Amino acid sequence: MTDVAMISDDAAAAAIDAACKTLHLPTVRADAGPTADAAARDRLTHRTYLAELLSAETDARTIRRRQRRIHEAKLPRIKTLEAFDAAATPGIPASLLTTLATGAWIDRGEPLVLLGDSGTGKSHLLIALGVAACHQGRSVRYTTAAALVNELAHDHWKLPSHDR
Q1: Which residues, at least 6 apart from 94, have a Cβ–Cβ distance to it below 8 Å?
Q2: What is the distance between the alpha carbons of residues 87 and 90, in angstroms, rounded to a whole number?
Q3: N or C: which end of the chain has fewer CB within 10 A?
């Protein structure tokens, strides 16, 4: 067995803190001490402690990525499929909503067009599908048709004259 230099708990905490800053592990940094205390109390193995700590970091990163994608999508508000009132729109079968929520139509490059009278839930459904796509790891961008036309027209006028 090799000799292991014993360091104090304070020195170990400082080393963990410094390493976590360098490695960009904010959840490990925040949870290392409390998780170590719980692991000692519950007599967990070192591997179990490490697994729990790394699991907490990956879970927190997943949540932050979802939040970032939703923020970057520029959705006007957050809506979910669970809050969608399917009874108010009997023309949309529940099975279709379930199918759309998987995002397979996105993978296949199929367009989705929502048409209907005002107040029928088109915007809610569109936003909710965008949120679901963000949760699945997809990047989404919300825009109105008018904003898209304005953006395209603006980009068109920025082209050099020989490209028009």
Answers
A1: 86
A2: 6
A3: N
Residue 65's alpha-carbon distances to 43, 121, 134, in angstroms, are: 33, 27, 9
- Our CA angle for 135, 141, 145, nearest 5°, is 140
**Calpha distance 52→39 (Å, rounded):** 9
Q: Is the pLDDT of residue 148 over 70?
A: yes
Which two three-digit tokens encode residue 31? 């949870």
Using CB atoms within 10 A of its CB, is residue 27 exposed (0-12), middle (13-18) or buried (19+)?
A: buried
Cβ neighbours, 10 Å, residue 75: 18
Q: Do residues 114 and 126 touch, judged by C-beta distance below 8 A?
A: yes
Q: Comparing 35-49, 76-90, 149-163, which segment has the lowest mean pLDDT?
A: 149-163
* pTM as predicted: 0.73
Q: What is the pLDDT of residues 68-122, one digit of tens each?
A: 999 999 999 999 998 988 777 778 888 888 999 999 999 999 988 888 888 888 8
CB 127 within 8 A of CB 78: yes
DSSP class of 3: -
Length of the chain equals: 164
